[in-house]
Specification:
By secondary structure, the protein is α+β, with helices and mostly antiparallel strands. Helix content is about 25%, strand content about 25%. The protein contains 3 helices and 7 strands, in the order βββαβαβββα. The protein has a 3-stranded antiparallel sheet with strand order 5-2-6. Strand 3, helix 1 and strand 4 form a beta-alpha-beta unit. The longest helix has 18 residues. The chain is elongated. The two termini are about 20 Å apart.
Length: about 140
C-alpha cells in the first residue's frame, strides 16, 4: 500500500473463472487455483466461498498470472481473475458469490524527478488505455 493520496487509481473488476471444456466449479470440495498465501485475490476467494458455506481446497498455487490462467483452462480448478483477462477457453461463473473490484493505485513520493514524472505520465496513459472506463480519478 502506498502512502498518501494516489496520483491515479483504477478499478479492476474480478470474475470467477472456470474451464469451458473441463469445468471444476461443481466438484466437492471446489478445487481452487490461487496466488501464494496473502497474494492477489486469495483472501477474496476464500472469504466469499466461506461466507456461502462452499467447501474448497487449494489445488494449484503460482505467483504467475499466466500460470493461473493456464491451470484454470486445463480444468485444475476455479479462480478469481481480472474480468478483462478471461480467456476464450474459460467461462465466467456468474452465479457464484459477487466480489468487489480491486483498486490499482499509482503513488508518487515527494521530490520526484523529471524522468520519474515522465514515467508516471506514461504509466497513467497506458493504464488508462488498458483499463478503459475503469479510471476513477480524473487527471
Amino acid at each position: 500500500r502506498g502512502q498518501g493520496e494516489p496520483i491515479a487509481r483504477w478499478r479492476e473488476p474480478l470474475a470467477w473463472a472456470d474451464s469451458r471444456d473441463w469445468p471444476a466449479g461443481e466438484r466437492d470440495p471446489v478445487p481452487l487455483v490461487v496466488f501464494p498465501s496473502e497474494g492477489l485475490y486469495r483472501r477474496q476467494i476464500t472469504d466469499a466461498l466461506d461466507a456461502r458455506g462452499i467447501a474448497w481446497r487449494i489445488a494449484y498455487v503460482s505467483a504467475s498470472l499466466a500460470s493461473l490462467q493456464g491451470a484454470v483452462s486445463a480444468g485444475i480448478g476455479v479462480s478469481l481473475l481480472p474480468a478483462r483477462l478471461l480467456q476464450p477457453d474459460q467461462v465466467e461463473l456468474t452465479h457464484w458469490p459477487s466480489v468487489r473490484p480491486v483498486e490499482l493505485a499509482l503513488h508518487l513520493g515527494a521530490g520526484g524527478s523529471e524522468p520519474l514524472s515522465r514515467l508516471c505520465e506514461a504509466l497513467i496513459a497506458l493504464c488508462d488505455e488498458v483499463m478503459g472506463e475503469e479510471a476513477i480519478v480524473p487527471r
